[in-house]
Amino acid sequence: xxxxLVEITRxxxxxxxxxxxxxxxxxxxxxxxxxxxxxxxxxFLEPALKFRAxxxxxxxxxxxxxxxxxxxxxxxxxxxxxxxxxxxxxxxxFVNKMKESDSNYRNGCKHSNYCIxxxxxxxxKCHHCVDNLPKSLVKEIEKAEAKL
Length: 148
Hints:
This protein is of the alpha+beta class. It has one domain. It contains 6 helices and 6 strands. The relative contact order is 0.16.
């Protein structure tokens, strides 16, 4: 279950609660702070299902899909389409490889968020595609990936 991030009250009445997972990284991709577990696959699925239950128009699921099994699960839960970013940053051939493989195929992305740290400052790349990363950054990535 995602972490409760915000609770809005009016007097003693809870008006709404916001759940989610997030990380803050600096421009070198170093983890500064995190809440919840944004490293797990389909990290927005639980809150997205609440939207799916209320919204009657087509809805696209967004949030960390890297395996065929989880994509199938999300589609089976009523989402018409899925969006993928990290899986394609890690391996642009992911969709083709998934088509050619069995239902257990999984992309190698481990949600270390290095690509997110680079998104607005450098060319967006997976750390697996970058040569000569600083040792301190390699240690941070290894710590993030060990949480899986």
